[in-house]
């Protein structure tokens, strides 16, 4: 569905992407995980025509984004990290204008707007002015809008940033449903639990490069199953073990304050990059 | 065509929601000019054989068509830097020209509304002139040129604050030097030549000639059309520069 080869992008002296390559298969829910400034949003902006690439190549559904930009854009839906709705317009008007931009006829716009408002459980807010909606409702409306034209590939850039935990869970359920309905999802996040909960496959990006790519469990298994956090005079350290019994033996040999837990994606990210996710 | 209408419709929906405030805002400056220059200062002045208020109203209509068409730049900047709605247009499968023409037509519509307000003010103060097709054509060309320029400038500025600088350096000087308040014929030749480079000078002249029933300065219409075309091409190019 998506193939990126050696994507590079600089903003003045800052190299945002340094030869990024990755693929996302049709029907996948792929999470692109990395700290702020790692290059996640830049990647999404390039793939959606909001930024130019300096070098490299990106194909969506077999179409080159540089050679066939309009055809590529028809395949994609984008939910930006920040709210980019028209606050003065109503919920319905925002959806209707999106449908017009994608060339949908009047009856098709009406049918799809109703269908997608039902889908995100906002049918009762159709006539509300967008500026009166809460953050969670705005995010759901942005998702409905991105789905209006029936994209095959949905980009979600930090879809739950700034939302409270209950609303975040609701957005996660919606994202799962969208993917189960056949839409390929490319999600960026810096929330470990979001990637673990949602994704079939995770890509770690750090300083504009892909440093790991695979199913979350496989990436974690490379470290081991168990992690032991040790707190001593020298600070905090983490050690990894394949078996719990090995972790137990290690704790007994330390004589320091220790705790044992399952390995998580953050351990893998820290181990690969030396950086913690925020 | 559908995309062009979508861009235009968005601006019209916003304009409709603000219509009352917008009409008041469009009327304030012309009213002040009519009161200060037209009545207080120019009440006893004759220009080209006519009362100063009669001279002023077509010029004010031309000036308002320029300022209101160019005000689209501010609207686009809000959509680009504050609301970030511009990204919706960037991500959509629409040709750049559809976006530019949609915004330009929105600027043209605002300008037509502003002209109607100026003419209504003139009528209230007793000005009776002929506003036929040649009058409206001159001001429509002027509005088209400045709306296109507005789209181009809105794409090229890097921050919302830059927009205010453009108004100070381009629009305000042109408003005072483009034949709105005085006939360019009264200036020395070098100054007249320089000010004739301004599109507004041609719009003022063409609008006045039409309103006074004088001859049609075809070169002024051609100049405005060429300026509009040049600014339109600049805007189409500038939209692609607005990425990043």
In short:
The complex is a heterodimer of chains A (about 280) and B (about 240). Chain A is built from ten helices and 13 strands. Chain A is of the alpha/beta class.
Map the helices and strands.
The complex is a heterodimer of chains A (278) and B (244).
Chain A: E1 2-11, E2 14-24, E3 29-33, H1 40-47, E4 55-60, E5 63-64, H2 69-75, E6 76-79, H3 91-101, H4 106-119, H5 135-147, E7 153-157, H6 165-180, E8 184-189, H7 192-198, E9 201-206, E10 209-214, H8 216-221, E11 226-232, E12 235-241, H9 244-254, E13 257-262, H10 265-273
Chain B: H1 2-17, H2 19-41, E1 46-47, E2 50-51, H3 52-70, H4 72-82, H5 86-91, H6 96-124, H7 133-156, H8 160-177, H9 189-195, H10 199-212, H11 218-241
Antiparallel strand pairs in B: 1-2
Structure overview:
The complex is a heterodimer of chains A (278) and B (244). Chain A has 278 residues and is of the alpha/beta class. Chain A has two domains: 2-214, P-loop containing nucleotide triphosphate hydrolases (Rossmann fold, 3-Layer(aba) Sandwich); 224-262. Helices cover 37% and strands 29% of the residues of chain A. In chain A, a hairpin with a 2-residue loop joins strand 4 (55-60) and strand 5. In chain A, helix 3 (91-101) crosses helix 4 (106-119), helix 3 runs parallel beside helix 5 (135-147) and helix 4 (106-119) crosses helix 5 (135-147). Chain A is globular and about 70 Å long. Chain A starts with a strand and ends in a 5-residue tail after the last helix. In chain B, strands 1-2 form a two-stranded antiparallel sheet. By secondary structure, chain B is mostly helical. Chain B has one domain. Classes of the chains: A alpha/beta (278), B mainly alpha (244). At the A-B interface, helix 2 and helix 3 of A face helix 1 and helix 5 of B.
